[in-house]
Amino acid sequence: MILSIYTYGQPVLRKETQDIDAANYPKLDELIENMYETMYNADGIGLAAPQIGLTDRIFVVDLSPLADEENPQFKDFKKVFINAHIIERKGDTEQVEEGCLSIPGIHEKVPRQGEIRIQYLDENLQSHDETYSGFMARVIQHEYDHLDGVMFIDHISALRKRMIKSKLTNLENGKIKCDYQVKRI
Fold first, then answer.
1. What is residue 22's predicted lDDT score, i.e. its pLDDT?
2. How many helices (H) and strands (E) does the chain have?
3. CA–CA gap between residue 101 and residue 43 (Å, rounded)
4. Does 143 qualify as catalytic in the annotation?
5. What are phi and psi of 45, to 5 degrees?
6. Helix, strand or coil for residue 121?
7. Which of 40, 64, 129, 166 is the most core-located residue (most Cβ within 10 A)?
8. Closest listed residue to residue 140, CA positions, set 14, 179, 131
């Protein structure tokens, strides 16, 4: 089922999520399926629970649409991250443009470290402790931030924030144009 995506200004996007008891989570498989379907419908590559109005610590990522000759590693990169916690961030900080399904129409260069170590449960409740770098690390950090009530615009300079203030105000006031279903304030 395609769910509404909560947009900038919705309080749930600023709340810190809680680990879930995945073994006793009713309809976890259905939630994961709905998150993927919602993400694909919006042409996204990642979606976190707060973006659909939940305060559960879960996000999904699928980089396979970006796979090509230059990026074959994305071909099978479809993952569910339950109760995820980044243990370490390291490497050079790079500024790369990001966008977000919850902030439609705004793209900004965001500084992020190039490598992360993350612990999480997958959709089969198997525990993982993995290291990612490059674009994979960036996407995971972006979605992970949502679990802590952080949005990519929180990482940009004060000057850039002032420059996009009117766009953010329009989003808060429900003035949104996008091709997918959103939850308006």
1. 84
2. 3, 7
3. 9
4. yes
5. -120, 0
6. strand
7. 40
8. 131
Question: What does the pLDDT average to over 21-40?
Answer: 95
pLDDT digits (tens, 9 = 90+) for 95-113: 999 999 999 999 999 999 9
| pTM score over 0.85 | yes
Written as one string, the DSSP assignment of 54-119 is --BSEEEEE-GGG--SS-GGGTT-EEEEEEEEEEEEEEEEEEEEE--TTSTT--EEEEEEEEEEEE
| CATH architecture for the domain at 5-183 | Alpha-Beta Complex (3.90)
DSSP H or E segment with residue 128: strand 127-133
Q: How far is the C-alpha of 53 from the C-alpha of 143, rounded, in Å?
A: 14
Annotated catalytic residue, options 88, 130, 143, 172: 143
The H or E element containing residue 5 is strand 5-6
Burial (Cβ within 10 Å: 0-12, 13-18, ≥19) of residue 129 = exposed
Counting every residue written for the chain, the total comes to: 185
